[in-house]
## 1
Amino acid sequence: MSLPHADDPAELAAAIAAGDRAAIAHVLNLLDDRRDEARKKTTALLAHLQQDQDNPTGQLIGITGPPGAGKSTLSAALIRVWRARGLRVAVLAVDPSSPISGGALLGDRLRMQTSTEDDGVFVRSLSSRGQFGGLSAEVWPMSVVMLAGFDIVLIETVGVGQREVDIARLCDTTCYVAQPGSGDSVQFIKAGVLEVPHILVVNKADMGNLATRTLSELEAALKRTHPDGHWQVPVLATSAVDGTGIETLADALEEHYQLLRGPQLALRRKRYQAYWIHKRLLEEFGSFGIDQLGGEESLLAQLQAQDMNLFKQYDALRLRLYNRIQDTLE
Amino acid sequence: MSQETVKRDRPWLMRTYSGHSSAKASNALYRTNLSRGQTGLSVAFDLPTQTGYDSDHPLARGEVGKVGVPINHIGDMEALFHDIPLGQMNTSMTINATAPWLLALYVAAAERQGVDPAQLQGTTQNDVLKEYLSRGTYIFPPEPSVRLTTDLITYTVENIPKWNPTNICSYHLQEAGATPTQELAYALSTATAILDAVKASGQVPDDRFGDVVGRISFFVNAGIRFVEETCKLRAFGRMWDTLTSERYGVTNAKQRRFRYGVQVNSLGLTEPQPENNVQRIVLEMLSVTLSKNARARAIQLPAWNEALGLPRPWDQQWALRMQQVLALETDLLEYGDLLDGSHVIEAKVQELIDGAHEEMARVDEHGGMVSCIDNGYVKRELVQSHTRRLRNIESGELQIVGVNCYKESAESPLTAGDESGIMKVDERAEREQIESLQAFRASRDDSKVKAALQQLRACANDGSNIMPASIECARAGVTTGEWSEVLREVFGEFRAPTGIDISPVGNGGSDALEGVRRRVKKTGEELGRPLRLLIGKPGLDGHSNGAEQIAVKGRDAGFEIVYEGIRLTPAQIARAAQEEGVHLIGLSVLSGSHMELVQDINREMEKIGVTDIPLIIGGIIPDEDALALQDQGVKAVFTPKDADLNTIMNTMVTIIREANGLEPAA
């Protein structure tokens, strides 16, 4: 990629903040790149992007739900509403990868079909790459970059179980999309398998009775106050086909964001980052490694108390563990 | 040989699927074909006409007159049939999403010839459901599409009684990989969906429903396994008879007859040693003629060189002569059914019927054919069958002469000529068509056009039959793009599931696949991240089977595949390549517009500053064009003769390595 200021982190950060598509694409590739040279560049860049940690911008929204619930089509409809409201939107669409070949089919763009004339939308597909509980490890660092250039960053994942947990711990607002007629969602909520989302959506409301029934089942099953406190979880009916409920959903997402804004949001973002670092270290070094760093709780607290730089923090801890293992072996 | 006159059956209708460049050029071709003994016409429309765009629409660029004739308005339709009396002609039109419109133009053109529309004979393909599964010339979502289909059916049953309003196609299902059982099941499930919709529309009184059933015809494929194919057609006849009697209570046996036309298999035609296609085509023709009780009503044969490019008039004539030799020289038409009473045939027929019933039950479980398109069930089954076929060719389990065995060949004099055995569309055709369209628009009465379109919109909204308003539009000088745009606004546009989300091959993949996987993985590690590939289908061509197979194979080889389905603009492809950070772009173009599309994509990539992603292309691309494309920077050109997908995968890895400054080998 021939970018004018690709090697100057300050200018690159400024280009991202200005919404320069080529710069954003370039940095996303760098974040994907595991080589040392790329890691050095992204560490320097993140330092520039993270200067205003106490005053975070943008809203990070997670959309999840079972396959076939119509998440991508719903996202496309939401994007149209946001664009009409003048908001710039970036999407990270995560699809599972094949456990055998490591390859993946990333098909979400197909259903999103955003206009090519519109510079206010940017979509990057990601494969889960068999790691991070189904949510690609690149999701958080890429979100950080996208938040610098867009008003809304939407993370879309398929799944039931572990993935909701992960997405709930990395997003400001989580939205669970249920399929009409499938009792699964209700069962998961009752059994406590499903992390309680901030907003519950029954999509395909155009399916009539089936959708109405699922809607009332979910309303009955759900405790209406979110464990976060101060938030009543709305259960909404939407249809991307006839446009039902999309504006209402966008309003609810906005309302939740308003609730979070300010100091609370800054704290949450620090928590996501701590969670991400913990999770990566856990994958790399196992619980042994986490124990060496004082155990999960202490590590998370320690990380949240520090001044932030994602990769610097991560690399420092990693080095500490390497050295300790080295010492033990010698 | 006996010299007495034996009573012979009347031969089937003989046609050649044709049309190109312009209405005038196609008219000349039709008149030549008729003078050579062709007994009906089969019109091929170009992609903009099939997908509802005028020739001057940006998406039409490079596609005008390529795979068929452009028809924008009544003037074009009149020119297409100049000096061909429509009252006596039997015309088959391969047209689906815009079928009501093209029939409306045909009716209006007949009126101008002084022919009573009630006399017209012919067929509109009018089977949109299969377009979502294969071929890809759909426009609207399934529901309004079914409504347009039923409107055309009910209109013709009432007003053009000898017309075949729909040709339910199993042809394209086989091209997409369907087994004979799947072909039977999905075609009959489609027919059921359409007939149920006609019934539900309330436009036909119950006592006349037999007339509707009696006008339903089929368009079937015939592959090289000609014994099984014959059995498939006998199975079709028997299943249709039972279905129409039991489900729709049709008592008149004549109305329950399985009537079908055929185009024999294109999927099995090979680019290597293309002369072998002649015997393939002849054997395939046998499968639809051998059994008198299951014989085709109309046959069109592909040309031997279809896999190389556009056939010349001489190639089409050769295909017609094959039919004439079988019908006129052999004694086939002198006998009753040759296969009645054969235990072997009977057992096979029964096996196919049983299998088809099982699959039809599964379609019902998934909510019927229309739901199965929406939820991707049928598409996934087809992609799976096709993948299995390609894996069998790869492993040698399925032998194809000249492709995976007996590959050595002497040089063929057939492909040695200056034009390398194919026809070229005149490059001026598109420009001339656009000029004539613009002149036509300038000459019409705008107030009439406006009024007719308003009426059309009202009908689309209130649910009344679309045909009368469409015929009025045709008379008023409305264009194909205008008619379609009004309906797009009312019904919306649709994108079909790609069906590529099927399960991967396991660890038991072949050694060749394991080798590719290792290279993909290693190269990804050297470049710091997994290899990503964008597969793009630019232009209006909807033949996505090839792109889908590359996508599935690429995933199995370890690539991360970004695939957005069909009908993308060059700007969309350039943009997706940038946003997704891919290492390689692979294009698939089968319509012949590869030169224009590659130019446009290169331009769009430059515009947004993407200059370092290598581009490869696959499609029906003549050698001469392949060289020109490589001059424009395309790194590899694949054609149907590149049948080994592992080789293609390996080439892709090598190209990525070279583009990133790595050693090509490894």
## 2
Amino acid sequence: MKKMLSLALALCMILAMVSCGQKDDTPNDPNAGQPSQGTQDQDQNKPQKKLTVATVVKAIGSNWFDSMDWEGTKWAEENGADHHYIGPTSMDSAAQLQCLEDAIALQPDVLTVVPIAADACDALLAQARSQGTKVVTHEGTGLTNIDFNVDAFSNEGFGINFADKCNELIGADATYACVVGTLTTPAHMAWSKAFFAHANANYPNMTCANDLDGGEIVPLEGGANSDTSYTMAKQFLQAHPELDVFYVCSSSCVAGVCRAIEELGLGESVKVLAVGTASGQKTYYESGTIVYGAMWYPGAAQYACYEVGKRLIEGKTISTGDDLGFEGYHSITVDGTNIYGNAWLDITLDNLAEMCEVL
Amino acid sequence: MKRVLGNKQNRKTISLLLITVVLAVIIGSFNPDKFFTAQNFQSMTRQLAEIGIYALAMFVIVVSGGLNLSIVAVANLAAICGGSVMQGLILGDVIVSPLARLLVGLLVAVVIGVLSGVLNGYFVAGLGLTAVLVTSATSQLFQGLALVITKGNAIVGAPEAISALGTHNLLGIPYLLLLALGCYIVAEFVFEKTAFGAQCRLLGANATANQYSGNSNYKTLMKSYMLSGFFSAIGGIVSYSRMCALRSDYGNSLTSTAMLVVLMGGAWVVAGGGKVMNIFISLFCIQIISSGLTLSGTSNFTRNTIWGALLIAILLAATPAIQQRLSRLKGLARRRAPNKGNAA
Amino acid sequence: MRKRAKINDMTIRVVLFLLILTVFAIIEPAVLSATNVCSMINDSIFNGIAALGMMTVMITGAFDLSSMSISMLSAFLTLKFYNIIGYEGDFITMFLIAGTFGALIAMINGFISQKFSLSGFVVSIGTNLIFGSVFFIFLRSSYIKTDAMPQTLLKVRTTAILSLQSSGGTAANLNIGIVVLVLTAAALWLFLNKTQLGRGIYALGGDKVAVERVGYDPMTITLIAYAVFGACVAIAGIYFYSNAGTFEPGMIADKGSDVIASAIFGGCNMKEGKGSVGGILAGVAIITVIKSNLILLGVPVYYVTFTVGAMILLGVLFSTLSEQRLQRNRGR
């Protein structure tokens, strides 16, 4: 046993020594990243030091987040930067945190994060900032240790829009139910709550079929795959025959809910307001089950995030009306640490083909 | 005799260590400026400390021939209950001083961990049900309970001591690594020096033989589930210290990573086998691959593939050792069981 | 004697299933409406096919955690294959091609574990990581849009073999997938009980040495058992992704635990090489009835996960206690 212990300790020490040996060099790295423009220009090569940028997404392997890689690469090529695209293979907060740790160890100049569990990332992001990294999140409203959070639009506005659309397309006396991916996804919950609040305030004849908990809406949970939402929706439709419309906040749940509606032969009477990719639900737009959808292009948000980070490094300020150089972010709104674009994409039957090309 | 076999064991440890060092050199050379830094060392060890403690919770059960799929759910539940006490959300009026809250919170977390171990143990050991089925059901039970408590929201914030545990270092070595090392030393002691450890191993190696040694089967299993629950709770606190937030759905992927680590440490190659220290080394191995590949700009798909390939390579390399390992177990079990040949 | 024991274990599961169903129906009569019955059957298809496959491996005394990776990978290869040859697909070749891919992939597991006498479970953890990742390393994107899916396959979603209009305004549609489940179950039952090879699979789980003495080649039998397993999970996988209408690698991952739970609940026992088609179907029925009714019953959303866990645990408790009592009675 003593041998084992000494072996293990030796292992630790080797690693520690390796790292301590390098310790003298490391502080240079973040320093080199920041004040290189002003103070140490002569030490650096004539062109500005190559930036390292990294983005940590919820999961790799889907078009939604891979588009952030495509546009991130594009930005990096335009700006001569080194782009890293990092993320777990399935959506899991612990796996994402590990990716985030590794990304921070890269000591990037700009770090973009799309957090699965926003609160869980906050402590780590503080470490990133303390080493001089500019942290720009996407879908990260409510985080404190960030420089900016870039969103395609305000969460509240997004939910309100859907309530308005519900009134317009379904009717002022619609009975609705909200579906989220999981009850622990902040953005989905924010949209549902905004929908609920706006409907209550402006459309008194609309009825919410969801559970209520102390006056707050408790949306249905659609889960991470279309099968769970399918099973859930079938039961809910039977329990609530009076339902007129589902507001589905999670892209991965839309197909399941639509399938349930069509299987129960309710395609005429129950409609869906959908969030998320057009290309995944094309058939349901065509069959008329989805009457309206909205999404944003995450790649554009990625481009904007990097642009914000670069400007911060250059010492510029970000203010309302700035142009971040990508469609939807030509004139941004700054609200505290939140940056909103006008990157809202409506999906209806008319522009379906076009939207399917986007994502 | 014991010495010779011990040396053989050492050989496995040494080869694992060699693999780890070679991997560190190779993978590190992809991006040496970022890999061989104090910062990366700290980042890596903080990550492996978390996985490592979950791996211990898994190992404790695996050694006796079972599988515990509820470790993460138990960890979350324990940390949520403990964290609520620390934050003063539960019993906030009764316990006022921050130190008392911290201590009571820790106690609550550990007690919940052990109690959930008792529940698992009762179903598996007491009623003789399949461990996989029981723990996957209790996993939903505990996660559901955590969801009921938190209503899907995160509990944000942590006492100073907890957040320091997750982020600070002692002489350049993260506290978390020291904590993990401590847990491993405890586990090493339990599984190499105590009768309980030997019983666990015998149970895993040959449960039928163990049945003849009276009703100790029940006690051994029950104890090992309680120990697993205990380590899960510690794992929950570690996760809490890293995030400074508590969520009911944190970290399902940790279960499979923990399994991978335990497997690499050799616990499944021989039923009832596996050295605690080998697991500790394979932690480094896995973490070096993970962090090194990320730093060198490859995706997690590559990482998973290499993890899997390395695992199978190690398994294949270790196959001939099975028979010797079994005979060593019998010696260690202190004549608890009749000396029957079980290597058919 | 053995046969009788099996029937009795089976009876316990059927009783448990009816018990849960009755309690649910008393709380909410709509549980037994035509719509909901069809709905429950549709929900059980994926689980059923995959659990039957899982059973085949468990009978040989192994346990495989890579089922969802095999499922995902073979669905991916099938869809890509259709893409490359530019064929819109049809139901029969879809299941056959996916099944072939699955069988081939799963046989890798069987080969490694048998050749090097490693536990199949251990091997599957390694191969699970590899199967789930290796093909996606070099792809720009592994996502397949609805447009790029073979269009005929998408019709799986709406093709029903039985359609009723029930009183509540909802339609009861029995999905075509049930045919696949029934055929798989029937074929597997015939294979396991009526053929030499099938008996060999049961024998392998009981006593490996005896198998050799009788003249079976353990390697052949292992490979065949894994091939059946792979084919089943792959068929379930292509069915899942056709229903989803798009392909994303991570989507299917969390379906695995239900499959394992159904298989074990259905009486599979790796230690003794036990397991039967009827048992699996009963196990799947119980898991489905628990998971597919709670919202209809009006359980608050926050409590659903908890209730599922608790009910499965109680169900396991019930069936085990009854089995133990049964055995004790028999012992007397």
